[in-house]
Specification:
527 residues; mainly alpha; Clc chloride channel; CBS domain Like; 61% helix
C-alpha cells in the first residue's frame, strides 16, 4: 500500500498538469474556431453573435476530425471516458495504451472547442487514468495495484478540473474502484490531495461556481419540496439516459461506417445551436448564471430543451466528450425552472437541488452528486436539501431503469457490472461453523489441503481455488496437526443460503396483540 501511495503522489501531480493543459487546449480550439484569435482562455461559443454557417458546420467539421482520429488512431477515444475507464479496469487488467493519453484529450478539445455540448471531466478521467496506468505498466505491479494507480490518476484529474477533492474521491469509490479497501483508497486520496494543491497553483482555489448563501434557511416545507424536485430530476435523468441509447441504437442501424457518425452528431449540435447558441460548448458561464439565479426565463427553457436534446443525441453518435458538465447545466436549468414556481429560498437554491438530482439520477452516484454540488458552489448549508433531492432521483432511476448511462454502455459490450456493494457472506462465517466432523475411520483419500477452524469461509474458498481442490482437512485453531473436521466445496453454500434467507425470508417476530373482549358478550374484536 505504501509503495503504491508513493507512486500515486506522482500521478496526482501529473493529473493536475493534464487537467490544466486540457482546459487550455479547449480554450485554444474554441477561440480559433469561433473568434479567429490565438488565446487559451475559456470562452463560450454562443456568448457573441456568430454567423449561422459557422454555428451549423463547425460541429460537423469537429465530428469529421474525431471520426478520423478514432478510426486511424484509437477507437478508445469514442464516448465520454468513464465507461472506457471502467472497461479497462474490469477486463483489461487496468492497462491503457499510451496513445489514448494523447488522443483522448486532443479529440475532446476538438469536440468541445467546435461547439460540442460536452464537458472536460470524462476526457480528463480517461487521460488521468491513462497516466496512472502507463506509470504502473512501467513498474512491476499487480493488476490491483495498476487499478489503484489508474483510478488515482482519474480522480486526480477530476479534482484538478473542478477543485472538488471530496467529490473526486467519492466518484472513485462509487464508480471506479469496485471495492473499499485501504490498499486502493489511500493511494486515491493521496493523488487527489496532490492534484488539488497543484490546481491551486495552476488555476486557483476559488469555487468554480460560487453561490452566495447569506441568510440561507430551508423551511420544513421547502425540505419536503426537495422530494418533488428530486423526483422531477429523476424523471429527466431517465429520459436523457433513454435518449442517449435510443440515439446509439439509431446510429448503429446506419448503412455506413461509424467513422462518419460523429459528423452527423455534429449536425444535430449545429441545428440546436441555431435555436439556442448558449447550449454550445462546455457552458461554464451558463452554469454559473443558473446557480446564482441570474439566468433569464428564455435561457432556462432554451438550455433545458436544446441542451438535453443535442447532448443526448450527439453523445449516441460516439463522439468524444464528458457527461458531467452537460448534466450540471441540464440539472441546473431544470432546478431554475422549478424555482420559478416554488417558494423562494436563496437565489440558485432550486438550481442546486436540480443539479444534484440529475447527477444522482444519470450517474447513479447520489453522494457524488451532493458533494460535487457543494464543492462547486461552496454552499455547504444546502447539504441536507441536496441529499434529499439527489437520493430521490437516484431511487427513481434505479426503480425505472435497469442500468445507468454508464453501465448500459458496458452491458452492451457483453460485460456484467454491479453497482451494489455488500459484505461478502463468506466473510461472516468460520470454517468450524459449517464443517463436517472428521470421520472416525478417516476418508478414503485424505485431502491434500488443510485449513484451520478459525479461518473464514472466504479464506478457505481462496485456498480451495488456489490449489484447485474441492475439499480440505480442518485443523484445530491451537496449531495441532490432528484433523478435527472436513470442509467440502458444498459447505461454502451455507453462507450464500444464509444471505439469501436474510434477504427474502419474511417473518413476524413479535406476536399480535391479544383479542379485546367486546362489550355485551359480542364476539371479540382482533386489533
Amino acid at each position: 500500500m505504501l509503495l503504491v501511495t508513493g507512486f500515486a503522489l506522482v500521478v496526482g501531480g501529473l493529473g493536475s498538469v493534464a487537467a490544466f493543459l486540457l482546459l487550455k487546449l479547449i480554450g485554444l480550439v474554441s477561440n480559433l474556431v469561433f473568434f479567429q484569435r490565438w488565446s487559451t482562455g475559456m470562452v463560450a461559443p454562443g456568448a457573441a453573435h456568430q454567423p449561422w454557417w459557422l454555428v451549423l458546420f463547425a460541429p460537423v467539421a469537429g465530428g469529421l476530425v474525431i471520426g478520423l482520429m478514432a478510426r486511424y488512431g484509437s477507437e478508445k477515444i469514442r464516448g465520454h471516458g468513464m465507461p472506457e475507464a471502467i472497461e479497462a479496469i474490469l477486463t483489461g487488467g487496468s492497462k491503457v495504451a499510451p496513445r489514448v493519453a494523447v488522443l483522448k484529450p486532443v479529440s475532446a478539445a476538438i469536440s468541445i472547442g467546435t461547439g460540442g455540448p460536452f464537458g472536460a471531466e470524462g476526457p480528463i478521467i480517461m487521460t488521468g487514468g491513462a497516466i496512472g496506468s502507463i506509470l504502473a505498466q512501467l513498474l512491476r505491479l499487480s493488476a490491483d495495484e495498476r487499478k489503484a494507480l489508474l483510478v488515482s490518476g482519474a480522480a486526480a484529474g477530476m479534482a484538478a478540473t473542478f477543485n472538488s477533492p471530496l467529490a473526486a474521491v467519492l466518484l472513485a469509490v462509487e464508480l471506479l474502484l469496485f471495492e473499499w479497501r485501504p490498499r486502493s483508497f489511500v493511494p486515491v486520496v493521496a493523488a487527489v490531495a496532490v492534484a488539488t494543491v497543484g490546481r491551486g497553483y495552476l488555476l486557483g482555489t476559488a469555487a468554480v461556481f460560487p453561490v452566495p448563501t447569506a441568510g440561507l434557511h430551508v423551511s420544513t416545507a421547502a425540505q419536503a419540496l426537495c422530494v418533488v424536485a428530486g423526483a422531477v430530476g429523476g424523471l429527466l435523468a431517465v429520459a436523457a439516459t433513454w435518449l442517449v441509447y435510443r440515439a446509439e441504437d439509431a446510429f448503429a442501424k446506419l448503412p455506413f461506417h461509424w467513422m462518419w457518425w460523429p459528423a452527423i452528431g455534429g449536425l444535430v449540435i449545429g441545428v440546436g445551436g441555431l435555436f439556442e447558441p448558449r447550449a454550445l460548448g462546455v457552458g461554464y458561464d451558463v452554469i454559473d448564471q443558473l446557480l446564482t439565479g441570474r439566468a433569464t426565463t428564455s435561457l432556462i427553457i432554451g438550455i433545458l430543451v436544446v441542451k438535453t436534446l443535442i447532448w443526448s443525441l450527439s453523445l449516441g453518435s460516439g463522439t468524444s466528450g464528458g457527461v458531467l458538465a452537460p448534466v450540471f447545466m441540464i440539472g441546473g436549468a431544470l432546478g431554475a425552472a422549478e424555482g420559478l414556481v416554488l417558494p423562494q429560498v436563496v437565489p440558485g437554491f432550486w438550481a442546486m437541488t436540480g443539479l444534484a438530482a440529475v447527477v444522482g439520477g444519470v450517474m447513479r452516484s447520489p453522494l457524488t452528486g451532493v458533494v460535487f454540488t457543494m464543492e462547486l458552489t461552496h454552499a455547504w448549508g444546502a447539504g441536507p436539501s441536496l441529499l434529499i433531492s439527489s437520493t430521490t432521483a437516484y431511487a427513481l432511476s434505479a426503480l425505472v431503469l435497469k442500468r445507468s448511462v454508464l453501465t448500459e454502455k458496458i452491458a452492451r459490450r457483453g460485460l456484467h457490472l454491479t453497482r451494489e456493494y455488500s459484505t461478502d457472506p463468506l466473510e461472516t462465517f468460520f470454517v468450524e461453523e459449517v464443517m463436517d466432523p472428521w470421520p472416525a475411520a478417516g476418508p478414503d483419500e485424505p485431502p491434500r489441503l488443510s485449513v484451520r477452524t478459525d479461518d473464514t469461509l472466504r479464506q478457505a474458498a481462496y485456498l480451495l481455488a488456489e490449489h484447485r481442490v474441492t475439499e480440505a482437512a480442518v485443523l484445530a485453531h491451537d496449531g495441532g496437526d490432528r484433523p478435527v473436521g472436513l470442509l467440502r466445496l458444498t459447505h461454502l453454500l451455507h453462507a450464500r443460503l444464509h444471505d439469501l434467507t436474510e434477504e427474502h425470508h419474511r417473518q413476524r417476530l413479535l406476536p399480535r396483540p391479544a383479542p379485546v373482549p367486546a362489550p355485551g358478550g359480542r364476539q371479540p374484536v382482533r386489533l
